[in-house]
Amino acid sequence: MNIRKVVAIIVVAGTVIVAPHAQFTTHAQGPGNPGAEEGVRKAAERFYAALNQMFTGDAAPILVAWSHARDVTDMGPFGNRSVGWDQVRQEFEREAKMKMGGKVEPRDMAVGADRDLGYVVCVERGENLSAGGQPVSVEIRSTSIFRLEDGEWKIVHHHTDPAPKLARAAH
Question: How many domains does the chain have?
Answer without folding.
Answer: 1
